[in-house]
Amino acid sequence: MIKLGVNSVLFKGVSFREAAQAIKRCGYDGVEISAIEGMCEHLRLADWKNQKQELLAITNDLNLPFLSTEVATRDRERLLVAFEACAELGIPVANIGSGGTSGDEESFKETVEILRVVAEDALSFGVTLCCKAHVGAAVHDTATTLRMLAEVNSKGLGVDMDPSHIHRAGENPAIELPKVISAMKHIHIRDCKGEGPSPGIPELQACGRGDIDLLGYFKAMTEAGYDGPVCLEVIGDEQSLADAVAIASESYGYMNACLKMLNAR
Known about the structure:
Layout: E1 3-7, H1 16-25, E2 30-36, E3 40-41, H2 48-62, E4 66-70, H3 76-89, E5 93-97, H4 105-124, E6 128-132, H5 142-152, E7 157-160, H6 163-168, H7 173-180, E8 184-189, H8 214-223, E9 229-232, H9 241-261
Parallel strand pairs: 1-2, 1-9, 2-4, 4-5, 5-6, 6-7, 7-8, 8-9
Antiparallel strand pairs: 2-3
Helix pairs in contact: 1-2, 3-4, 7-8
């Protein structure tokens, strides 16, 4: 069954316990814990061993398993720590962007070399490293995603298929999804008003508020047999707890309704 989760970056203004409690109340199946340096470190990689028992107690008490973590870096030393933490905490997926620069061949080649190394690192810890197409990055659309997969060629590397970035690359996510489904291990999801480059203010990233055909995307996802995590990822200004809950609950209602309509939930 497809599991719905929330990246805890939406709740960066509160503790992880408060975030997890809110996410559970909204109806989600699991949580993506944010380890984004300088933005939201609910998982503090420099101190994760001291956090371990508390984090596990929170997820166990709430029956809210870890679906993934977002590390958002390709720095090998930080990723090695993240992979160790994932292995100990039972987090199956670590999410990053490719980094680099769109349209720059040397940057793409450098990105591939880095991903080859860190994907094998992830594999050695029993973790899947997922990379998504990202506006402005070396991997930024479907073509560069497919090229990345071919050139890295590692079982440790999967695709985090984020429709908002594909939409802002001028593509239709529902049409592009089947092209990468064989490598898809995670989905970051949010809506987007307009063509970008920004996804818009946080409340307009709530699923159903923007211009992406998310119902079509869910239809393509279910028809392709995807059964991994789908985690709401909303970025931008810090939200009050009440505002974050509103975004998360509205998005859950939309996604849950889509999946029920498609007999996938």
